[in-house]
Amino acid sequence: MSKQNIIKLREKLMSAVFLVAALASILAVGLICFFLLVNGLPAMGEIGVFKFLLGREWSPTDIPPVFGILPMIVGSLYVTAGAIIIGVPIGVLTAVFLARVCPKRLYKLLKPGVDLMAGIPSVVYGFFAMAVIVPLTGSSMLTASILLGVMILPTIIGLAESALRAVPEQYYEGALALGAGHYRSVFFIVLPAAKSGILTAAVLGIGRAIGETMAVVMVAGNQARMPVSLLKGVRTMTANIVIEMGYAGELHRQALIATGVVLLLFILIINLSLSALKNRSKQ
Amino acid sequence: MKKIIAVLLAVCATVLTGCGGAGFDADRAISVVSREDGSGTRGAFIELFGIEYKGADGTRRDMTTKETITAMRTDIMLTNITGDRYAIGYVSLGSMNASVKAVAVDGVQATPETVKNGTYVVTRPFLIATKGAPSGVAADFIAFILSAEGQTIAADTYIAADDNAAPYTGGGTSGRIVIVGSSSVTPLMEKLREGYIAVNPSAVIEIQQSDSSSGMAAAINGTCDIGMSSRELKDGELAQLTPIRIALDGIVLAVNNANPIENLTREQVRAIFTGETVTWSDII
Amino acid sequence: MGETVKTKKKAFERVMQSATWAAAVITIGVLVLIVGFVLVRGVPHLKPSLFALRYTSDNVSLMPALISTVIMTAAALIIAVPLGVFAAIYLAEYARRGNRVVAVIRMTTETLSGIPSIVYGLFGGLFFVVALGWGYSVLAGAFTLSIMILPLVMRSSEEALNAVPDMYREGAFGLGAGKLRTVFRIVLPAAMRGILAGVILAVGRIVGETAALIYTAGTVAQVPSNPLQSARTLSVHMYSLSSEGLHTDEGYATAVVLLVLVVVINAVSARIAKRLGGGDK
Questions:
Q1: CA distance C22 to chain B (A)
Q2: Which of A105, B177, C90, C136 falls between 20 and 30 A from C37, CA-CA?
Q3: Inter-chain CB proximity C21 and B4 less than 8 Å
Q4: Per-residue pLDDT tens digits for A2-37
Q5: Rounded to a whole number, what is the distance in Å from the CA of C91 to chain B's nearest CA?
């Protein structure tokens, strides 16, 4: 074989290797969906899809057991909504501050601070909330929402800030030239121009909040019944899995994996709306 | 800028004093805190207080009120009681500390003595379970646990299962075993392992802390050599496993330090945990 | 009339100014509160015995967990980095624009980055631990984590590769280098810093992870002697340590070490990324 041929062969071989590596993510998603579905769907079938999804009672260790995850679905949605209500305004305003208000010197201090927030492990957030927020608002939906609102802050701040920075400077200057004040220009011209980036940030925040586990389980109270009030506890889907997975028997375990399937479904919907958002902003 | 900070501080201060200053208001609802379903502590607790309903037809219902806060771990249980003056919960005698207040049951306080002489009735065994007869390191380690040396270690924090155990005579085995189960038993098991490794350094013992039910499941399906449980085994588990009692533990009923209550009857405890009794004034 | 408009304008400016400052103060206040809380509760309990080489129930040393964290991180990176970088090379250098496969790859990668860690934990437990029979092990944990960080590595590598000016490639081709040679000798070295910054962020994610590990790597507190043994990372250590309410103080001390680790990781990543930015300009 000539040297030329060896080089050609190597080129072909490596481009195949690169392709295979790129396909790994498809394989991973495929495997994850496959294993969760295979282990979770039979339980849904056995319990009955509607009974499982819309059932309001969850008593997995009773004989006979009852598996209804509506309380957990609603719980996850409530807590996530709470997190968004708390996290998005504070996050977006902080992003405005960082991108448009903050003096440069302060920025050098604040930016690493926000990065640090993103890096703090969720267990640490959990311990903090358990010791500091729970004595004020109890193990409750409110506590869980506040905690999650804080935990999604770095995600929202980071994305919203880069969206704000991507708005051309002329927008802001044009508004100033027309006589608008600094904040009026920022909030009525720059912020709307960064709308789709900020929306993306909020949607990613939803994804993070709905999937958070270890911190939420420490402060949410985890009552497996329909949420009753802001100051009473709730159980999220993630909490349901992590509390009971360890000791679950056959059908119970499958029901928990099925809870994971429902959670995954929510994440897929969130991702789809995210890519729809991106496509729209491209056009 | 300064104004904002001042306002924030004021808000923080009112929130803190608003929740912190007042005394104990008995008309407030009881916050019931319990452990998660699979926990051996909960299993033993609901059984001992008759919170579990057992039907003649084999049906079984955990009657714990759905309003209970589920604390997945002992420390979450403790912080919930410390942080909420209207809370009540339960922990292992070995985990009890001054951050919460112990309540007597039927007039008896939980102490190692009352647990040992049987006057305090809310007790449960620490068990290990194996599938079939153990061999090698597992058998030798169990012999150590049940020996005088092992039982002395158990008596340090808990109550020995056997006061007159014979001295340990085994040794010389090597290999690796895995022990899985109750997080309540784990601290004791770690101490036992250290005592055992000191006399038998060639053995490797891995301890996975989870909960009683997963420990029994792991012992049944063979993913571990020894399972740990902090409650009596259920019939299904007994059919496949041989339990061995290694120590005795009390379950302490705990309330917030601000709570004036000193004693509860078993019936009152049952009523609280099933949700029949809702406010503290119903009892005090 | 003009006066009222002016005051209204001023009032608006005032209100929005307060709002943005307040938000920033809250954000930083919360951060200071958390860090302060951990330091106050943890630092007094940082004792030399916490760093003993062996874990015992008396010293509850975090050293084995720290070592396991390093092992786990290294193992996950060994799997994810080549895979992620190669995938990025495919996307940035080989794939044609508008290719359908590329669209699918991008979508799945984004899906992966959105999947919560508890779902990774469930999957890892079902697949690596049970189906492949690896049991609770470093190997199962590392594979699970590597899937989790794959999108992060892919994205940052692709961005870094795209940032390499086309002149580099054209120059290399002009000198007669093949595509492969160009990629490995010219493009990849130029993109190295960007890739590294992404990898270090991935390390940060691994260090903070708990939910995906308790079902895959287990909670054994000793340094594993082979990849099929169970081990716990620092985060899992902190989580398990305090669970019986016996070693809460040591749990907070562990949290201090975790925070220091995160700060170091962030600083290193920022420094690398910064130099990268400086070099380009």
A1: 7
A2: A105
A3: yes
A4: 778 888 888 889 989 999 999 999 999 999 999 999
A5: 42
pLDDT, tens digit, for every residue of B241-269?
999 999 999 999 999 999 999 999 999 99
| Same domain flag for C20 and C90 | no
In the 3-class helix/strand/coil scheme, how is B242-257 assigned residue by residue?
Answer: EEEEEEEEEEEEEECC
Smallest CA-to-CA distance from A75 within A249, A251, A259, A277 is with A259
Distance of CA C40 to the CA centre of its chain: 26
Q: How many Å separate Cα A272 from the centre of its chain? A: 14
Compare B17 and A148 and report the one with higher pLDDT: A148
A19: distance to nearest CA of chain C, Å?
Answer: 6
Residues of C in contact with B73 (CB under 8 A): 242-244
Its domain, for residue C18, covers: 2-45
pLDDT score recorded for residue B188: 92
Most B CBs within 10 Å: which of C25, C241, C246, C247, as the mutation test of the B interface? Answer: C246
Instruction: Give the pLDDT band (50/70/90) at residue A60.
Output: confident
CATH number at residue C105: 1.10.3720.10
Q: Rounded to an integer, what distance in angstroms lies between the CA atom of residue A144 and that of residue A130?
A: 10
Averaged over C199-227, what is the pLDDT? 90
Whether a cis peptide bond, with omega within 30° of 0, leads into A64 is yes
What is the CB-side half-sphere exposure of residue B190 using CA atoms within 13 A?
A: 21
Indicate whether C72 belongs to any domain.
yes
- Identify the pLDDT of residue B135: 84
**Do C69 and C40 lie in a common domain?**
no
Within this chain, do residues C74 and C35 fall inside the same structural domain, yes or no? no
Rounded CA-CA distance C123/A260 in Å is 9
- Reported as half-sphere exposure (CB side, CA atoms, 13 A), residue A226 has a value of 7
Task: Tell me which chains share at least 3 CB pairs under 8 Å with chain C.
Answer: A, B
Contact C249, C45 (CB under 8 A): yes
3-state secondary structure C154-223: HHHHHHHHHHCCHHHHHHHHHCCCCHHHHHHHHHHHHHHHHHHHHHHHHHHHHHHCCHHHHCCCCCCCCC
Question: Is there a contact between C94 and A10 if contact means CB atoms under 8 Å apart?
Answer: no
In a domain, C99, yes or no: yes
Question: pLDDT band at A169, cuts 50/70/90?
Answer: very high
Nearest CB among C112, C127, C235 relative to A123 is that of C235
A211, C23: Cβ pair inside 8 Å? no
* Domain count for chain C: 2
Considering the domain architecture, whether residues C68 and C122 belong to the same structural domain is answered as: yes
Mean pLDDT of chain A: 91
Write out pLDDT tens, residues C245-277: 788 899 999 999 999 999 999 888 888 877 765
CB C118 to CB A242 under 8 A?
Answer: yes
Whether B1 shows a pLDDT value over 60: the answer reads no
C158 touches chain A (CB under 8 A): no
Q: In chain A, which residues have their Cβ closer than 8 Å to the Cβ of C31?
A: 113-114, 116-117
C267 touches chain A (CB under 8 A): yes
Residue at C281 is within a domain: no
Is C139 in the same domain as C6? no
| Contact across the interface for C119 and A263, Cβ inside 8 Å | yes
Residues of A whose CB is below 8 A from B210 = 246-247
Rounded to 10 deg, the angle between the A70-96 and A250-282 helix axes is 40
Q: What is the pLDDT of residue A120?
A: 93
| pLDDT per residue as tens digits for the range A81-118 | 999 999 999 999 999 999 999 999 999 989 999 999 99
Mean pLDDT (chain B, rounded): 86
Q: Which residue of B has its CA nearest to C215?
A: B210
Q: C136 in contact with B at a CB cutoff of 8 Å?
A: yes
Structure tokens given for B249 = 């533990």
What chain A residue is nearest to B58 in terms of C-alpha separation?
A63
Region of residue C229 (left: phi > 0; alpha: psi -120 to 50; beta: else): beta
C52 and C157 both lie in a single domain: yes
